[in-house]
Amino acid sequence: MVNPSKFWRLLPAFLLLFGNSCSSDLAENSESEVNGKVRHQGVLTSSHIDLSLASDPFALCSTEQSQKAVFETLFLSNDSYRIPGNPNKESLHSFYDDLQKGYFSKNNTLNSPLIQKGYHTFTHAIDVLATTHALLECGGSRFLKDFEQTALLVAAVAHDALHLGVNNQYLINIKHPLVKEFGEDSLQEKRSIDYLLKLIKKHHLFTQTDVSNPEENNQIKRSLKLINEAILYTDFKRHKELMDRMNAKIPSILKVIQGNSEQHINLSSSLDNDTRTLIASFILHTADVSNPGKKWPVCERWANLVMAEFFGQGDLEKSLGMKPSMNCDRDSVLIPECQLGFGKYVVHDLYVSLAKIIPEGGNFLLKNLDANRDHWEAMRKK
Q1: What is residue 108's predicted lDDT score, i.e. its pLDDT?
Q2: What is the spatial distance between Cα 347 and Cα 27, in angstroms, rounded to a whole number?
Q3: CB-CB contact of 38 with 64 (8 Å)
Q4: Distance between CA atoms of 211 and 226, rounded to whole angstroms?
Q5: pTM
Q6: 33: which strand partners?
Q7: Torsion over CA: 332, 32, 289, 365 (sign)
Q8: Mean pLDDT per 10-residue section of the chain, whose length is 382 residues
Q9: How far apart, in whole angstroms, are the C-alpha atoms of residue 46 and residue 69?
Q10: Helix axis angle, 214-232 relative to 146-158, nearest 10°?
Q11: ∠ Cα 55 60 61 (to 5°)
Q12: Domains of the chain, residue spans
């Protein structure tokens, strides 16, 4: 069994590790990467796309076309997610292509064949994008203005761009050049933000179409601020900070909900800017670690992918004479034990908090988390 006192003592290191391992294309995948491209294994068109919480991200990302279909469905076919500046289809496709390159690019700065990204890839980005949309659809959208929902989805698809497949602490320990460029706090998250903002500027997204309209300019500034804060909160080192802030705010959010009798009425005008940004960040953070709350086949596959990435970092650390980081030593770590601890001591409370303001989404994740725990327990006993 997991020792609670030991787990809590090691939790900060665990959170730091897991939080920096939340993104995916595939290692042994249905999405086979060849020279930065995906083999065409059948086309998933927009008419066949399931973007609910029960969707299969590996089916959504089975081909290059199916990945793009998800992006097009949300940003080109959905009137709710119109990016300021009204970019045309060609501009959005160019933005998408550049963003995808940020996940597929082979960054050799670690100079090691031991690091093979299997989790921090474009499949994870698409999964988090779809899950964020699903959480908005099942109740989260009522807390945000339309432009904030759009900004949140942009943050979701870009949140792990350029990730190196190791955690921030490892980069700090080896004194990687990125530490000097971005600092020690949330360095890979800051790098993703920097990359995204450069692409936004390059492709003229979030630009003002009417210079005489101060409200449009204000919405653009608010959108960029939300993108920045939401991506920073995907750094799991900030998990406790986000949970404390959100749990302190939930009572006032519930009062707003209770004060409006109509279930589907938008409540954003009753919430201040900071509260809406906090809720958006909370939704993205939940989507980023929603894998333990998905159906078992999806949950198990993501777990194996993230643990493979952990073990790759551990192998690299051993090769350099370093002690493997927590949960990175393939010779001593049991995947079921690791997943049980993370589910019990971390994401359970996160999903409970979500269920208070978005019952449908939170209860879906909690139900699957409970069911998946039985699977992990059975595997642990074996």
Answers
A1: 54
A2: 25
A3: yes
A4: 22
A5: 0.88
A6: 38
A7: negative
A8: 43 40 35 32 54 96 95 91 90 96 76 87 97 97 97 98 95 96 97 97 92 90 98 97 98 94 85 98 98 98 96 96 95 95 96 98 98 97 90
A9: 5
A10: 40
A11: 140
A12: 4-381
CATH superfamily of 4-381: 3'5'-cyclic nucleotide phosphodiesterase, catalytic domain (1.10.1300.10)
**Nearest 5°: phi and psi at 38?**
-115, 135
Name residues whose C-beta falls within 8 Å of residue 66's C-beta, 6 or more positions apart in sequence. Answer: 43, 44, 59, 60
Q: 121, 24 in Cβ contact below 8 A?
A: yes
H helical segments located in 175-330: 177-182, 187-202, 214-232, 239-258, 273-288, 296-319
Residue 120 burial (C-beta neighbours within 10 Å; 0-12, 13-18, 19+): buried
Per-residue pLDDT at 25: 39
- Beta-strand ranges (E) seen in the chain are 33-34, 37-38
Both tokens of 138, joined, read 């099942």
Task: State the CB neighbour count (10 A cutoff) for residue 128.
Answer: 30
The predicted structure's pLDDT at residue 134:
98
C-alpha separations of 119 from 153, 288, 306 in Å: 20, 12, 5
Q: Are residues 18 and 306 in contact, defined by beta-carbon separation less than 8 angstroms? A: yes
Structure tokens at 77: 């076919």
Structure tokens belonging to residue 87: 């970019």
Pick the closest to residue 281 from 236, 229, 244, 240 (CA basis). 229
